[in-house]
Structures are given as structure tokens and as C-alpha cells.
Amino acid sequence: MTTAVTREVSAELRGFRRVQRLAYECAEAVAARLEPGVTEREAARMQREWLRERGVADWFHMPFAWFGDRTAFVNFRVPLQFFPTDRRLEPGMPFILDMAPVFEGCTADIGYSGALGPNPVQHRLTADLEAHRALILDEVRERRPLREIYEDVDRLMVRQGCANRHRAYPFGVIAHKVDRVRPRRFSPRLFGFGTQALKGLASDVLHGHREGWSPLWSPYRFSDHPPQPGLWAVEPHLGFRGTGAKFEEILVVTDSRDPEESAFWLDDDLPHVRRWAEDK
User: Which of 209, 109, 253, 252 is closest to 169 using CA atoms?
Assistant: First the structure.
């Protein structure tokens, strides 16, 4: 997208920002209701119900919730382990809420980290994430290959004394493209993912393969290309001794030659950004 095109589609970007804010409002509302004894499955259901009450009828993926050492994906080996379980929340335990609603054709994919009471380790991890948000934006604006940016994120984590936990995701992705989803009266799901959104991602995979890019931002060779214009849901995920923390939000990439217009975070008024400002 050029700068001119960016201005033309500002209304569309506002649609993506609206659904991203809606998802984070849901995360904050559900986090406020969590108490000892609540299970991951119950927390995931609370997210679904909150969003459905506000008009969400489709999903990129259904809500997830991870408690305790599952926030760091400890011993995760197969994709089924990502789905909510009967793990119960305890005082002081960290949690992550993750959801990807589709609203009025726009997609968001967000991650919200918190704890049931004080948790100094997760608080530190959340603070460490601020440097990753800045690093990713700077290097995308430099048009560094995605694979190299991924490696720089890894090196920053090592300097911080943290472990890379997004490497546990399928294909080790730190981000993936999101796009508009055509609204349907009935949108079935496949393993918790909306089929309409999956069709869009699959189309990007095929289209990108022909042109030499991938909609999946990974540490592998297929991500060895500059950032592709579009919307990217970015989710650096840190771990330390059984505790994990992450954020996930949309990064807008354009083909503008103006560095500030070439890439920018869709919204700076998000819980983790406000938390960093409060800590300072």
C-alpha cells in the first residue's frame, strides 16, 4: 500500500482497530472476573460469550486460555495441547488470554497476559516485551528480511535471560497475516479455526508461494524475504522457568518510502502499552 492508498483505506483500518480494541476490552473484562478455581475452559467460554453478546459471530480462531506453566508452553508437543483444559487458576498464578474474533469482516488476533495477584516474574517478562515491540517496528521499517528480524528477536530474548516460546507454535511463527473475511450467515469451524479465515490464509500461502513470500513469519527459509505489505498479527512470547508472557497486536506494513508510513502499529492505546507507560 502506498501512502495515498493508506489514506483511502483509513476507514477499513479503523474497522480492524475497532475489532482489536473490542478483543482487548473482552480480555480485560474476563481477566477482572477470574478467581481461584476457574478453569481454562471456563475462561475461554467467558471470552466467547462476552464477544458473542457484542455481535461477534465468526472467528479466525476460538479463544484460548493458559494458566500456570502452560503460559510458557511447558512440555507442549502437539497442537492439541494449546486448547483449553481443566487446569484451575490459583492465587499468584500467571495466565494468558488469546482470542481472534472477526467482526464486520475485520479480523483481530490478540494476546493478554496477567496474573491472579502479584507475580514478579510475569511482571518482568511483560516489561521486557516493550523492547521487542520497538525492535520489530524498527527493523520492519528497515525492510530487513522477516527471518533476520526473527533471529534478532531471539538474540534480544537471550540478552534478557528469557526463552523464545512462540517457537512452540506451529511452524514456530512469531506473526501471521490477517485480512478481511467475507461475512457468511453460517461459518463452520475446523479444529477451532474459522473456515472463512483459513481459506484466506491458505490463499495467501498459495499466492505468496508463487511470488516468493509467505504469510507466516517464521525462523525458516520460506520467511527469508522483506515484510509484505498488509496487516500482520505479531506475538512475541517470552518464557522464564515455567512462566510466560506475550502481547499480540496488528502491525500495518505498507510500501511507502516514508519510514514512518512504511510500518506502524495499528493502535498504541492497548493494555500492555498503557502498562509500560504506568510503570515508567
Answer: 109
User: Domain with 120 in it: what CATH number?
Assistant: 3.90.230.10
Cβ(233)–Cβ(248) under 8 Å? yes
What pLDDT does 210 receive? Answer: 72
Q: State residue 124 phi and psi, 5-degree precision.
A: -65, -40
β-pairing, 216-217 vs 230-234, is unpaired
Give the pLDDT score at 41: 98
The pLDDT, as a whole number, for residue 261 is: 94
Shortest CA distance to 47 belongs to which of 111, 90, 118? 111
Q: Count of domains in the chain?
A: 1
Nearest 5°: the CA angle 167, 42, 62 is: 50
Question: 93 to each of 100, 115, 184, how far by Cα in Å?
Answer: 24, 5, 39
Eight-state DSSP code of residue 72: G
Domain extent, residue 152, equals 3-279
Which residues of the chain register pLDDT less than 50? 1-9
* pLDDT for the residue 1: 39
State the Cα–Cα distance between residues 276 and 26, nearest whole angstrom: 20
* Helices 120-141/146-160 angle, 10° precision: 150
Asked if 219 contacts 150 with a C-beta cutoff of 8 angstroms, the reply is yes
Entry pTM = 0.90
pLDDT value at residue 221: 94
